[in-house]
Amino acid sequence: MAYQDPRVVTILRRSREHGLPGYTIRPEEGRFLQFLVFVLQARRILEIGTLGGYSTGWMALALPAEGHIWTLERDAYHVQVARQNLEEVGLGERVTVLHGEAPKDLDRVAQHAPFDLVFVDAEKAIYPACYEWAVEHLRPGGVFAAHNAYWAEEVTGVLSRIRQDARTFLFVYPSSEGLLAAVKKAGDERLSPNPHS
Ligand SMILES: C[S@@+](CC[C@H](N)C(=O)[O-])C[C@H]1O[C@@H](n2cnc3c(N)ncnc32)[C@H](O)[C@@H]1O
Q: Looking at ligand 1, which residue's alpha carbon is closest to its atom 4?
């Protein structure tokens, strides 16, 4: 299991104490998200599906001081717990937890685009719409990442769609649930549609 910063451990414990469900990312996936944040030198991140702020916390810990995460959550109670958790561990200033539902409320965060990273971990039916929105609102070289990639493929065929899309390059991190990462091409790459994915 990947090393976990005590602040994300606290977020997880508090989420449990508040009765939130345990379907978060795994520590190794948190580590992978942090790796993306570092490699991208990310400053602007959009997350869809906050729950108690555990994955948010992983990404926030890798952000530089001027970086920011906007995270969209449709359940008002989850929003309240996440805000409280992130505040308690000192990450409140780096994160804005928004109450809303994707994809219909995504235009509320469009003003903060272009994003370096868009991460979705929510109901699987919305993944294709979130992907399309993300490709429009990421900077060239930015990444669309999504949790439960294998399950989402079963429900929506999202991996197959992305593999056919020449605008991005797909990689699937083979964690138990699968975490997909699709890089928005700058437009001048020689690679044609996802040849090795
Ligand atoms: C699997 S949990 C997210 C876990 C979180 N990423 C973590 O690892 O700590 C999914 C969350 O997404 C929220 N959600 C589901 N569908 C959504 C949608 N369409 N828009 C916004 N939030 C959504 C749920 O209420 C739930 O809190």
A: 24
What is the extent of the structural domain holding 131?
6-184
Residue 1 lies inside a defined structural domain of this protein? no
Q: Per the omega criterion (within 30 degrees of 0), is the bond before 114 cis? A: yes
Q: What tokens does 163 get?
A: 């593999």
Q: Which helix (H) or strand (E) holds 55?
A: helix 54-62
In a domain, 88, yes or no: yes
Helix (H, G, I), strand (E, B) or coil at 66: coil
13 within a domain of the structure (yes/no): yes
- How far is the C-alpha of 80 from the C-alpha of 75, rounded, in Å? 9
Instruction: Count structural domains, the chain.
Output: 1
Q: pLDDT (tens digit, 9 = 90+) per residue, 57-76? A: 999 999 999 999 999 999 99
CATH number for the domain spanning 61: value is 3.40.50.150
Ligand 1 atom closest to the CA of 101, numbered from 1: 20
Whether the full predicted model's pTM is greater than 0.70, yes or no, is yes
Query: Is the shortest distance between the CB of 121 and ligand 1 below 6 Å?
Result: yes
Q: Which of 75, 109, 119, 151 to mutate to test the pocket of ligand 1 (most atoms within 8 A of CB)?
A: 75
Segment 128-186, tens digit of pLDDT: 999 999 999 999 999 999 999 999 999 999 999 999 999 999 999 999 999 999 999 99
Residue 195 lies in a domain: no
Beta strands 44-48; 115-120: pairing state:
parallel
